[in-house]
């Protein structure tokens, strides 16, 4: 049997000798990351200084382990960012939209603060300070920055470029609690009236409104679907002649830089595909749209531009905002309709049904972010307490 090897990351006996110029050289054999033994040396003005420098050099050497791409702890942060973006492309687990968002957040939020640093210089304190300073300006930006910085540094750990992820030990971000805002029934009626007035106005020049905005709003109110999901409804997703008319929410509209706007074959997540029963007001809006549409192909979109292309979500948001601004109605967004639907269903049947309608896998998400809490406790409590503690007059 051969002589057993020392473990990786350990060194042998330190030998020190003096040089004619008065300096001292300390040497030791170090078993490197690849299993090879290499001679490591350091020079100092005295035996003790040379030995101290050598031990420090050996202690730091484990951080020089190159990753599979030749990177080390002394590589620059921009090198890691490039490596991370390439790795996401190779894995191809995330959607193109998510990858684009991650790259945007990395370059806009994180990169400017870390671009001049090596990976060795990025520690817990620096990451913690960066996130806290960013959170003072915007909790949302700090949250996005935390995600991409953690992912990039996690890749460095997985590929043995860094021994640990400093993001594992930063303090939690704290957000001021907000109450989800929903429209009242009266506000919904005001919005409907404003859209109807805009769509019915006399036009001196240009095409008349084709009433799609009002129909889109009615479908959002009748399904809780996101704006992109409503715009992605195809004719084959509609089952209007069934005993219980339904629509299948099974896609969303995607607009990426450098690509034409198109329909994605699943909603925000694969698990949020759902078939939703249609109330009569949503059915009326859909039938009105079908009467105006000349396309009968099953794969055709229910809502399209005048030239038959998909609407972008930004254009519908902008149009809704313009119409509401003209009517003097503030804070009307497509997502607020979604919160309104969640609140109404929760008040009637509870959070579990509201969560199912919205396509959430966890009712806590619905409760925390979508349902406007009512301050009024069920008055039945008064009857129960009266029976328990009331006394005859």
From TrEMBL:
Keywords, alphabetical = DNA integration, DNA recombination, DNA-binding
Q: Which residue numbers delimit the Core-binding (CB) domain? A: 75-157
**Highest taxon, organism lineage:** Bacteria
Task: List the InterPro entries.
Answer: CB, DNA_brk_join_enz, Integrase-like_cat_sf, Integrase_catalytic, Integrase_recombinase_N, Integrase_SAM-like_N, Tyrosine_recombinase_XerCD
Ranges of residues in domain Tyr recombinase: 178-390
User: What's any GO biological process attached to this entry?
Assistant: DNA recombination
- GO MF annotation list: DNA binding
Annotated Pfam families: Phage_int_SAM_3, Phage_integrase
Q: Which family does it belong to?
A: Belongs to the 'phage' integrase family.
Protein's UniProt name: Site-specific integrase
């Amino acid at each position: 049997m051969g002589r057993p090897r020392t473990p990786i990351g350990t060194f042998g006996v330190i030998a020190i000798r003096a040089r004619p110029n008065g300096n001292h050289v300390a040497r030791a054999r170090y078993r490197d990351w690849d299993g090879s033994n290499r001679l490591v040396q350091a020079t100092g003005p005295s035996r003790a200084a040379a030995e101290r420098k050598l031990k420090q050099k050996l202690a730091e050497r484990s951080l020089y382990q190159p990753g599979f791409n030749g990177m080390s702890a002394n590589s620059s942060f921009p090198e890691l960012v490039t490596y991370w973006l390439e790795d996401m492309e190779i894995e191809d687990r995330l959607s193109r939209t998510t990858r684009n968002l991650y790259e945007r957040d990395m370059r806009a939020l994180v990169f400017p603060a870390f671009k001049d640093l090596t990976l060795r210089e990025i520690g817990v304190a620096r990451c913690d300070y960066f996130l806290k300073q960013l959170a003072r300006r915007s909790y949302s930006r700090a949250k996005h920055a935390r995600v991409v910085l953690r992912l990039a540094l996690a890749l460095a750990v997985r590929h043995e470029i860094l021994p640990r992820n400093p993001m594992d030990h930063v303090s939690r971000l704290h957000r001021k609690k907000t109450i989800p805002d929903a429209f009242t029934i009266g506000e919904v009626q005001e919005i409907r009236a404003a859209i109807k007035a805009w769509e019915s106005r006399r036009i001196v020049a240009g095409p008349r409104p084709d009433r799609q905005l009002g129909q889109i709003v009615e479908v959002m109110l009748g399904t809780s679907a996101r704006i992109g999901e409503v715009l992605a409804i195809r004719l084959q997703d509609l089952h209007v002649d069934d005993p219980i008319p339904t629509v299948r929410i099974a896609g969303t509209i995607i607009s990426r830089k450098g690509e034409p706007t198109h329909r994605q074959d699943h909603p925000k997540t694969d698990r949020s595909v759902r078939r939703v029963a249609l109330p009569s007001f949503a059915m009326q809006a859909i039938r009105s749209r079908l009467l105006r549409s000349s396309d009968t192909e099953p794969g055709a979109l229910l809502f399209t531009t005048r030239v038959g292309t998909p609407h972008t979500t930004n254009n519908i948001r902008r149009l809704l905002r313009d119409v509401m601004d003209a009517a003097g109605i503030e804070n009307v967004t497509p997502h607020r309709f979604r919160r309104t639907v969640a609140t109404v269903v929760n008040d009637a049947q509870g959070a579990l049904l509201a969560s199912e309608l919205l396509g959430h896998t966890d009712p806590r998400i619905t409760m925390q972010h979508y349902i406007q809490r009512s301050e009024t406790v069920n008055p039945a409590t008064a009857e129960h307490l009266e029976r328990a503690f009331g006394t005859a007059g």
